[in-house]
């Protein structure tokens, strides 16, 4: 370390400093991937590519499908603005999460534990665990539906089969973190390809799409049904556990742990996540656009279930394989989301509680908690109840957002904790505005829900 770097090492004003024996975030893969110190920009970007795409998985998981389908079928292109807004929020918040992890060497869970008193940490941990369970609930439902559509497996059987994915994640982790990233990116390519074909066939009006994406409608706030789905979209897009995940997995790169090395890592990590989230924007917007063209424009405004969409998509779009592409993309989405939920659960448990349990045990525990309500609701209410449970899970996710966003913005804005890596005042103001928007929307939803 040079004298200049040594003089500016971040010495954060945490409630307690990191003890020498504290575990690194995801210790088994921390700093395990080499990055070149010199070379062409693409070679350096490629070394940092991966975490952003793993994070982007959470922005196009099965929960998004339910809210995007309902939004497109009921309200046409109107909620495209919410998808755009959500992705812009995501780009900012994920960049802040990467900055926190790289600058401090702590993931968000570890940072919370090192700063907040124990009762606050307990509340934050519970909130994050609820968010992970809600996310897992969406994955179980989405994967089970995809298995039913493609192979005729009953929903309850498909839900039970999703418990096996714990072993898939374990196998990939044992091979190395790059294998895990490659698996995720391969499935993302499948999802992207499926929707690119459907958008080409649907041929939506470009002018209407651009107007809806950049010009908001007042109905989004004044129409309770539209607001409910809008908040569900935000909950499905900006996922709280993704902030914990990203602040950890950016540390898998073996960048120099000096100020100059960290600044370089922040630059490339932010570029990686921004590109990946633009891909997520395309997928989310595509789901809503396809629903708007196939269902809203043809008078099928009541299509809100993935099964309904599967049955109607091919005849309404006039493409025989449209429904198959839809189901294949859904299955890839469900499998992909499994990976990130597993890692996020491990990061949260180790960060808040310093509790390490085998990955397979953690995965089976979380997945078991998610499978039970799916099986019960499916048995009692059938596919309609499952579809409603899927949308509800995304609203639950939205409710957990402030518990992750507020600590993150507080930490990265604090120069005592971040040193020279603290965000500029203008960015801090923007970040607090995003946090305030999330809070206001959540309070609005609660009021409309309980006040009738």
Short description:
The protein has 452 residues and is mainly α.
Folded structure, characterized:
By secondary structure, this protein is mostly helical. The chain has 20 helices and no strands. The longest helix is centred in the last third of the chain and has 55 residues. The N terminus is likely disordered.
User: Percent of residues in helical segments?
Assistant: over 70%
Continuous helix count: 20
Q: What is the count of β-strands?
A: 0
Largest sheet: none
- Give the helix/strand class: mainly alpha
List the helices and strands and how they pair.
Blueprint: H1 3-7, H2 41-48, H3 51-57, H4 62-75, H5 80-104, H6 108-115, H7 118-151, H8 155-161, H9 165-175, H10 177-202, H11 206-214, H12 219-222, H13 224-237, H14 240-249, H15 259-296, H16 306-317, H17 322-353, H18 359-413, H19 415-418, H20 425-451
Q: Which features does this protein show?
A:
globular, mainly alpha, 452 residues
């Amino acid at each position: 370390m040079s004298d200049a770097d040594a003089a500016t090492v971040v010495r954060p004003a945490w409630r307690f400093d990191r003890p020498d024996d504290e575990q690194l975030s995801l210790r088994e893969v921390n700093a395990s991937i080499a990055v070149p110190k010199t070379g062409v920009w693409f070679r350096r970007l490629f070394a940092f590519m991966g975490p952003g795409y793993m994070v982007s998985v959470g922005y196009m998981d099965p929960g998004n499908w339910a809210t995007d389908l309902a939004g497109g079928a009921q309200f046409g292109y109107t909620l495209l603005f919410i998808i755009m807004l959500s992705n812009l929020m995501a780009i900012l918040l994920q960049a802040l999460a990467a900055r926190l992890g790289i600058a401090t060497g702590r993931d968000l869970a570890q940072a919370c534990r090192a700063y907040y008193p124990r009762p606050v940490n307990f509340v934050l941990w519970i909130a994050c665990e609820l968010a992970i369970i809600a996310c897992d609930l969406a994955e179980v439902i989405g994967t089970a539906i995809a298995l039913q559509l493609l192979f005729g497996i009953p929903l309850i059987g498909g839900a039970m089969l999703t418990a096996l994915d714990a072993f898939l994640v374990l196998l990939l982790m044992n091979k190395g973190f790059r294998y895990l990233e490659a698996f995720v990116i391969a499935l993302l390519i499948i999802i992207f390809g499926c929707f690119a074909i459907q958008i080409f066939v649907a041929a939506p009006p470009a002018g209407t799409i651009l107007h809806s994406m950049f010009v908001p409608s007042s109905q989004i706030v004044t129409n309770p049904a539209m607001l409910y789905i809008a908040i569900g979209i935000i909950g499905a897009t900006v996922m709280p556990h993704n902030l914990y995940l990203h602040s950890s997995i950016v540390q898998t790169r073996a960048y120099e742990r000096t100020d100059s090395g960290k600044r370089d890592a922040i630059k490339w990590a932010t570029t990686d996540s921004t590109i990946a989230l633009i891909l997520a924007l395309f997928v989310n917007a595509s789901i809503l656009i396809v629903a708007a063209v196939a269902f809203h424009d043809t008078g099928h405004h009541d299509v809100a279930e993935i099964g309904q969409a599967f049955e109607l998509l091919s005849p309404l779009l006039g493409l025989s394989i449209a429904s198959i592409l839809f189901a294949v993309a859904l299955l890839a989405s469900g499998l992909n989301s499994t990976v990130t939920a597993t890692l996020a659960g491990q990061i949260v448990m180790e960060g808040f509680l310093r509790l390490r349990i085998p990955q397979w045990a953690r995965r089976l525990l979380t997945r078991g908690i998610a499978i039970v309500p799916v099986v019960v609701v499916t048995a009692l209410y059938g596919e309609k109840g499952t579809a409603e449970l899927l949308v509800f899970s995304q609203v639950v996710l939205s409710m957990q957002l402030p518990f992750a966003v507020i600590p993150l913005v507080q930490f990265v804005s604090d120069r005592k904790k971040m040193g020279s890596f603290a965000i500029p005042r203008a960015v801090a103001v923007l970040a607090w505005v995003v946090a305030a928007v999330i809070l206001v929307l959540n309070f609005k939803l609660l009021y409309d829900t309980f006040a009738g």
